[in-house]
Design brief:
The complex is a heterodimer of chains A (about 260) and B (about 425).
Chain A: E1 3-8, H1 11-17, E2 21-23, E3 26-31, E4 40-44, E5 56-58, E6 73-75, E7 83-84, E8 104-108, H2 116-124, E9 129-132, H3 137-142, E10 143-147, E11 162-164, H4 169-174, E12 179-182, E13 184-186, E14 197-199, H5 202-214, H6 220-231, H7 235-247
Parallel strand pairs in A: 1-3, 1-4, 4-5, 5-6, 6-7, 8-9, 8-10, 10-12, 11-13, 12-14
Antiparallel strand pairs in A: 2-3
Helix pairs in contact in A: 2-5
Chain B: E1 2-7, H1 14-27, E2 33-38, H2 41-44, E3 57-62, H3 65-68, E4 76-83, H4 96-104, E5 111-114, H5 117-126, E6 132-134, E7 156-161, H6 171-179, E8 185-191, E9 204-207, H7 211-219, E10 223-226, H8 235-243, E11 247-249, E12 259-261, H9 267-279, H10 281-296, H11 301-317, H12 323-395, H13 397-413
Parallel strand pairs in B: 1-2, 1-3, 3-4, 4-5, 5-6, 7-8, 7-10, 8-9, 10-11, 11-12
Helix pairs in contact in B: 1-11, 4-12, 6-9, 8-10
The chains are: A alpha/beta (about 260), B alpha/beta (about 425).
């Protein structure tokens, strides 16, 4: 029996973590509106629409306030979660052209004020950078590598860790872009130094970024193992498992989506 | 044909059993003569080691990154590396130098023998020049055979597979998930070395079992739970599937779906999966049937042994690999290590510098404390002197008379 999965998502989010097409387990569509015909509805990030509550809300980071009881919420960290996970990776990102070695390091930060000193250091070191407040498919396509800077400035040598790696981290790995990510307690299977580079402090980011731009061809093992790590987050695989589980779960409530 | 396996040790780990299994299977062929040669004479304990001058061999096979460096210490026409995992992943970030050394084996001018398709594909990407054979690990199908399973009554019997003291086996996380279940469950941990099983307090721990005992253990449980972060294929779930016991596993490299797959670091999702199996006997039964189906496709010990023998013959017959591309890869590796080591060294220096700064601050603070102590002792002397002066005044006759007059005046005033 075929299943219809509807993903409620903003276009930028859908470009990274969405899924469209037909798969052995059913069909997937991305929609900004309610999909009455869907067997399962998953809302990505903060996307909302009229209609019943989505079966699952999959946040693009840590959980803020605790969800109301009975809501299925997936996030990278937080209490009362239904699951703890990074975002799936849209299948098409695995097919992106290899990066242009002369391309920019894409620094993904929602807080340019906090990361201003890092950006200055990167520019001062002569590193080519582009800055974005979120990871998008277009941004990824034009980037040679991706950095999510540490949320807080750790002391060098302390190996300070933040709670979890960013939800979109696997997208960069799927697209064969070397990844610099915050050193985190929860990596969702990523192995720092093996499939990505982990940083606790600005200077660590700068050093790794410099090495990646100066010697892009020497990081092939890191990129290949990153790609293998990303494979387990492939959207068609992850959503397929989710749909199978939801098929045996209680139906979603008739309350408003949001 | 003379073959030698270079081994560091032959413990209870699955990798060592693979080596033993392949060595036994080669010896079963009339045309193979097999030596197991220890690379560390301290571990050899009287058995053949690399100093022994044995050989020459048709093929020398290293079996672990630490043994690969010894490949050129034994006389051999061809050299190969049995790659059971990408071994750099076994080391945490702080074990930087072991990681680099383990990664180095991917740059050698040898033929690789891998046991999983994902490693063969990885090598094809990183070293398209390097000859590579794929020989899947076989299963002793006479031991790991389907068992009749009675309908379950009572708690879900969960078997956690892995050595708790190994960080990447996820055993403590697995135990925590079983303990967080809503449904009743019985927990057993099976470890290679059950004496070294800290962090699973209260759990029944078994280990050191031979293959028939392992098959019985799988059959005595409803589900195998394996939350490893690093595996090459994860033998436990494969063996359990042959018995008909499904597994809940993380998607480690080489995993097969012999049950349910749960995410890394996803305790709520894992607990939910176990609870589903506990209250849904139909699902558990379907997964058991599915596990048996996938197990049927898995090669037997015999066929894996034959495949390994065929691979070794091909290695012996083929020309030796061209060292040029290997050297080019090694040069790239060196640059990578240099850049990453530079950062590690900088961090170490920064940590030392920070320690020195704190040490100086501590010494300054101690000096201040000492100054304050001296000042305090001076003040205490002043206070003591004043106390003595007060006592002297109180002991004078004039003071006592004045006090008596004051009391008399106060009484009269009432």
């Amino acid at each position: 029996m075929s299943t219809m999965l509807a993903l409620l998502a903003e276009p930028a989010v859908a470009g990274v973590a969405g899924l469209e097409g037909s798969f052995p387990w059913g069909d997937a569509v991305v929609s900004a509106d309610a999909e009455a015909a869907a067997d399962a509805v998953v809302a990505l990030g903060t996307a909302t629409a009229d209609g019943p509550e989505p079966d699952v809300r999959w946040l693009g980071g840590p959980l803020g306030p605790a969800p109301p009881p009975g809501r299925r919420v997936i996030a990278t960290s937080g209490e009362g979660l239904w699951s703890r996970a990074a975002w799936p990776v849209r299948d098409e990102l695995f097919e992106l052209d290899p990066p242009d070695a002369g391309g920019d390091l894409l620094v993904v930060t929602g807080d340019e004020g906090r990361h201003g000193p890092l950006l200055e250091k990167l520019r001062g070191r002569g590193i080519r950078i582009a800055v974005a407040d979120g990871l998008t498919a277009d941004g990824l396509a034009s980037a040679a590598a991706v950095a999510f800077p540490p949320a807080t400035q750790g002391d060098l040598g302390t190996r300070e860790r933040q709670e979890a790696v960013p939800a979109a981290a696997f997208a960069a790995l799927a697209a064969r872009r070397p990844l610099i990510a915050p050193r985190a307690r929860m990596t969702f299977g990523l192995l720092p130094g093996v499939d990505h580079l982990a940083a606790s402090a600005d200077d660590e980011v700068v050093q790794y970024a410099d090495a990646l731009q100066a010697f892009p061809d020497v990081f092939a093992p890191l990129i290949a193992l990153g790609r293998i790590a990303a494979e387990r987050q492939r959207a068609s695989t992850v959503y397929g498992r989710l749909v199978a589980e939801l098929a045996t779960a209680a139906p979603r409530s008739a309350g408003p989506r949001g | 044909m003379r073959i030698c396996f270079l081994v560091h040790e032959l413990g209870r780990a699955g990798g060592a059993e693979t080596i033993r299994s392949y060595a036994r299977r080669l010896e079963a062929h009339d045309d193979f003569e097999v030596d197991v040669v220890f690379t560390d004479p301290r571990v050899a304990a009287g058995r053949p080691d690399v100093r022994g001058g044995s050989g020459p061999y048709d093929v020398a096979i290293a079996t672990w990154w630490a043994t690969a460096a010894q490949l050129w210490r034994v006389p051999a026409r061809r050299r190969a590396l049995l790659l059971q995992s990408i071994e750099s992943r076994f080391y945490e970030e702080r074990h930087f130098f072991e990681r680099l050394a383990a990664e180095e084996v991917l740059s050698l001018p040898v033929t690789y023998v891998t046991i999983a398709t994902w490693m063969r594909d990885l090598l094809a990407e990183l070293r398209p020049d390097a000859p590579c054979e794929l020989v899947a690990r076989g299963i002793d199908k006479s031991v790991f055979a389907p068992r009749s399973r009675r309908p379950r009554h009572g708690p879900l019997r969960v078997l956690v597979d892995g050595q708790p003291s190994m960080w990447f086996k996820g055993v403590r996380e697995a135990v925590a998930c079983v303990r967080a279940m809503r449904e009743p469950a019985e927990l057993t941990v099976v470890a290679g070395n059950p004496e070294d099983a800290d962090g699973v307090d209260g759990a029944r721990v078994v280990g050191g079992l031979d293959a028939p005992a392992m098959a019985d253990l799988y059959a005595d449980h409803d589900v195998l739970l394996k939350l490893s972060r690093v595996e090459s294929l994860g033998l436990g779930p494969v063996e359990a599937a042959h018995v008909g016991t499904p597994a809940v596993v993380t998607p480690y490299t080489g995993h097969d779906e012999h049950g349910l797959v749960v995410g890394f670091d996803d305790e709520p999702g894992t607990v939910r999966a176990l609870d589903r199996l506990a209250h849904d006997g139909e699902l558990l039964g379907a997964l058991s049937e599915g596990a048996l189906d996938t197990a049927r496709e898995w090669p037997s010990d015999e066929s894996a042994g034959d495949s390994f023998a065929a691979a070794v013959r091909r290695i012996a017959d083929a020309p030796a690999p061209d060292p040029e591309p290997a050297l080019a890869d090694l040069a790239r590796s060196r640059r990578r290590w240099l850049e990453l080591t530079r950062e590690q060294t900088r961090q170490a220096e920064a940590a030392v510098s920070e320690r020195d700064r704190l040490r100086r601050a501590l010494m300054e603070a101690r000096e201040h404390v000492e100054e304050l102590n001296v000042a305090m002792r001076g003040l205490e002397a002043v206070v003591a002197q004043k106390d003595r002066q007060i006592d002297d005044i109180r002991s004078e006759r004039a003071y006592r008379a004045a006090v008596a007059v004051r009391r008399a005046l106060l009484r009269r005033g009432r």
